[in-house]
Amino acid sequence: MTENGKTLKKIPNIIIEPPGPKSRSWHERAVRHMRGYSNQVKQFPVVWESGHENTMTDVDGNTYIDFSAGIYCNSTGHCHPKVAEKIKQYADKLMNCHDFTTPVKTLFLEKLASLLPGSINGIQLYCGGSEAVEAALRAVRVIKGGKYEMFSFWGDWHGKTMASMSLSSLGNEAFGPRAAGCHLSPVPNCFRCPFKLKYPSCSLVCMDILEGTIDNEGTGMQAAMVMELIQGYSGTVTYPDEVYKRVEDICRKRDMLLVVDEILTGMGRTGKMFCCEHFGLVPDVITLGKGVGGGFPVSAFAVKEEHAWALEKASASTTYGGNPIACAAGLATLEVIEEERILDNVNTVGEYLKGRLSELKEAHTIVGDVRGRGLLLAIDLVKEKGSNEAFADAGKMVYEKAFAKGLAWIPAGNILRLAPPLTMTEELAGKAIDIIDEAISETEKHYGIN
């Protein structure tokens, strides 16, 4: 069995200590001009040459197991032949025609609509996630007759444009002030409960607080609750299943819309096409992105049929959204997910990984929590067993040690995020966990922890 022209026995294949000399040279040239890199790059500045299926190769010739999927984007693996061929076809044929209809756009919209939950079928297309969220919030204001107050949870991350960022947990002075009418409520994060309570004896007091936030922070202009079903940026934070029904009831009771941000969780990442399907949840508005285009920039938002009229009033079109190349990538990606039964693979490999992660939790003192669904998983490092005190320095060390051994993945302080392509094999997944296990052991030894 081969991957990227190499036998699986030779993957990962580190031939020179990374970041190697070519990586350092290229990166040093780039940073003379490019600023504002993510911590992922700052901590381990390898320079990529190519990717194939579930692996990536840097300019020094090192091949890594990919557990980041281009920050959740490469859903069908790197350069899937069907997706790549469709992109090539339209790159030679038609690149952009504003928002005019093309046959490939029609086919993509029909395929996407057939997969969306419930009566959601009013769609508009964009390039990035923030853009889709921003447009969705604009549509909400139209649907609700000008009401503009939106609510989300602490730790949510919806984007880096004004309104989307205002519904996210802010990092520093560059992110404020919030847009008018944007409010956040304590998050139902049971591992780090804001109220230091335990579920289920807490009776989900956080949901009572959410109701209070909406009623007391709102000024009669309450329009929608906007939520990530699993928080991504904050470390794959999952909630008790009953939270979703409570949120839905809170919205319905107040005649508010429910907007679910599935930019990260959608397109099969959690084992169903959309994460909301796990909970029998049909939102009023859904945002999509990341894995929709198999790595090519494609995003969208969609609304229930009864609200589709609002897109006509919300100035929904964009310059690049829905361009032929993007639609070709999106259509090919959705076809691959169906034809290759990708969801079956997500569930099979996801269950295998959860089992291996549970073993890591039992074996290591600093592993405080492992969580997630499907191939959206995380390891949460703590300073001592039984506590939830974040161990960010250990997270940095584990990330870098594992990367040096051939695992390309995603850091978030004390939380290490695992998000491989949805095509990840069990064999490569097992090798990835072996690398993580070794990196955690070396880190515990460094800190004198048994």
Key traits:
alpha/beta; 2 domains; Aspartate Aminotransferase, domain 1; 450 residues; 4-stranded mixed β-sheet; 36% helix; 7-stranded mixed β-sheet; Aspartate Aminotransferase, domain 2
Structure, described:
The protein is an alpha/beta fold and 450 residues long. The protein has two domains: 2-66 and 342-446, Aspartate Aminotransferase, domain 1 (Alpha-Beta Complex); 82-339, Aspartate Aminotransferase, domain 2, CATH 3.40.640.10. It has 14 helices and 17 strands. It has helices spanning 21-30, 39-43, 69-72, 81-91, 103-115, 129-143, 162-166, 205-217, 242-253, 310-313, 324-339, 342-363, 392-404, 426-446; strands at residues 2-3, 6-7, 48-52, 55-58, 63-66, 120-126, 149-153, 182-185, 222-228, 257-262, 285-288, 299-304, 367-373, 376-381, 407-408, 410-412, 415-418. A seven-stranded mixed beta sheet has the order 6-12-11-10-9-7-8, with helices on both faces. Strands 3-4-5-15 form a four-stranded mixed beta sheet. Helix 5 crosses helix 11 (324-339) and helix 12 (342-363) runs parallel beside helix 14. The longest helix has 22 residues, at 342-363.
